[in-house]
Design brief:
By secondary structure, the chain is mainly alpha-helical. The protein contains ten helices and four strands, in the order E-E-H-H-H-E-H-H-H-H-E-H-H-H. The strands form two sheets. Strands 1-2 form a two-stranded antiparallel sheet. Strands 3-4 form a two-stranded antiparallel sheet. The two termini are 34 Å apart.
């Protein structure tokens, strides 16, 4: 979605492909550091508990706590990325997540392969293997991503309807809707249209605009004027919708 950045197409629930920026090395390192910081804090807590338990002569409980801590550390990424749709706590804070290269949600198998290859990416190569691979691959993939067929994208916040301002064209205060049928649409549809327009201006990918224009015209049952470009059509739909809905408030 941004110029001079690697992007990958992700299919929305409306089957419209939108380009999302691939997360860079910096975001991924920051996310990992956040996750490690969580375990460092947990380590301090376990250490304090261990001292208390040691003085209480409850050696078995101390061993259980140690085993629990190791299990949580080893399986943390695998479990959280599965239950949090490709994110750990660090990834969520950094607004990045793991997806399949086809743009869909990563499968359990893909998450498992990524987790298994953490040994190669981080442990056996002293963190260097994964970072070098992310830096040199087109889709910013570590070795585990390459094998699993995944990558990590930036989760750009969706457009809110409040961010879409209605401005009558050419400064005309009296605006007449061109397509009254747009009242069939929902706020979420208008937000998606606005997001597609933003994507076009940042990537110049006109295919995305045409796909959305065709779907919208078919959905609301209208024929787009031949002289109206896809971008103009979608912008007109937004203007019409905002005008009609504002008039009913």
């Amino acid at each position: 979605m941004f110029e001079c950045m690697e992007t990958i197409q992700v299919s929305t629930s409306q089957n419209v492909a939108i380009d999302y920026p691939v997360a860079g090395l910096g975001e991924r390192i920051a996310a990992r550091l956040i996750d490690l910081a969580i375990f460092f804090v947990a380590y301090i807590v376990f250490l304090i508990l261990g001292i208390v338990i040691a003085f209480s002569k409850m050696g078995n409980l101390l061993m259980i706590l140690f085993v629990v801590y190791i299990i949580c550390y080893v399986f943390y990424n695998l479990i959280f990325e599965i239950i949090m749709n490709g994110q750990t706590v660090g990834k969520r804070i950094m607004k990045i997540r793991v997806i399949s290269l086809d743009g869909g949600q990563a499968s359990l198998g893909q998450h498992f392969i990524r987790w298994l290859f953490r040994l190669v990416d981080f442990t056996l190569t002293a963190q260097v293997g994964g970072m070098v691979c992310i830096a040199v691959t087109d889709n910013k993939q570590r070795i585990g991503d390459v094998v699993a067929g995944t990558t990590v994208i930036k989760t750009v916040q969706r457009t809110n309807l409040s961010h879409i301002a209605f401005t009558p064209p050419n400064g005309v205060e009296e605006y007449t809707p061109v397509f009254p049928n747009v009242q069939q649409l929902a706020d979420s549809d208008i937000e998606l249209i606005h997001e597609v327009i933003i994507t076009y201006y940042k990537t110049r990918n006109y295919d995305v605009v045409e796909a959305m224009a065709l779907k919208m015209a078919d959905y609301i049952g209208i024929v787009r004027p031949r002289e109206m470009s896809g971008v103009d059509f979608l912008q007109t739909v937004i203007n019409d919708y905002n005008h009609i809905t504002s008039a009913t408030i």
